[in-house]
Design goal:
Elements: E1 11-14, H1 24-38, H2 45-48, H3 54-58, H4 67-78, H5 89-98, E2 103-106, H6 111-120, E3 130-132, H7 145-153, E4 161-165, H8 168-177, E5 180-184, H9 190-193, E6 199-201, H10 212-218
Helix pairs in contact: 1-4
């Protein structure tokens, strides 16, 4: 746990899948299907790749000649997915909008997926001050590049930002950036991500305008 607390966060930096959108279970099935066909040979493959960009996921497969096929298969399966808000997520982001607190979406998703997300959850994209996708970074989580870029885009000190993540790679990216980290249990058990977070919640309905400051002050 970090040895400091934040009483006045300057910006909130959000992961997408497993934090805002209910999609991690479907993605595990999709990547298990792809892995079954193209054989990465990586133990616990679907867990290890969570939070990674597609470019970095592809490196786990031994035959680069198959990368285009894998990418096409992924986009085809993604196009059939249905995206929904996770409990409390929409309400929490709406409150940040009302308070005029900067909000940055930092996702490992590529632009193809984001196009489908816009079709499924059209209001989401307009709720963020900035959106960082895989196309805007060169290093995948747990590298902090995405979160450092997010803070700079809204002129915030990363140490005064709150990162909200669910995957092991994600919470480590937040920790490595120097931000205050809220972990969302589900994709990974709370006990496994807790050492890399300031606090862990089950979903964003546990964080609201009434208890946010208290949570941060007592973490």
């Amino acid at each position: 746990m970090a040895d400091y607390s934040i009483t006045k966060p300057i910006a909130f930096l959000f992961d997408l899948d497993g934090v805002l959108i209910d999609s991690e279970t479907e993605y595990s099935k999709i990547w298990a299907t792809i892995n079954n066909k193209y054989k990465s040979g990586v133990p616990d493959f679907t867990s290890k790749i969570k939070g990674m960009t597609l470019v970095n996921i592809l490196k786990h497969f031994p035959n680069p000649d198959k990368y285009d096929e894998i990418r096409d298969m992924l986009h085809d399966l993604e196009s059939r997915m249905t995206y929904r808000w996770l409990p409390g997520a929409k309400e929490f982001v709406e409150w940040l909008c009302e308070m005029n607190i900067p909000r940055v979406l930092v996702t490992s998703s590529d632009d193809k997926k984001m196009e489908h997300l816009k079709e499924e959850v059209p209001e989401l994209m307009g709720m963020f001050t900035e959106i960082i996708t895989a196309n805007r970074i060169t290093k995948s989580k747990p590298d902090p590049e995405g979160y450092l870029l997010a803070a700079s885009l809204v002129n915030a000190d990363i140490k005064n930002c709150v990162v909200i993540e669910d995957s092991m790679q994600g919470v480590n990216a937040g920790k490595n950036s120097g931000a205050y980290v809220i972990g969302v249990a589900g994709t990974w058990p709370a006990k496994e991500i807790e050492p890399f977070c300031n606090i862990v919640v089950n979903n964003l309905s546990e964080i609201n305008k009434k208890n946010l400051i208290d949570i941060l002050e007592t973490a």
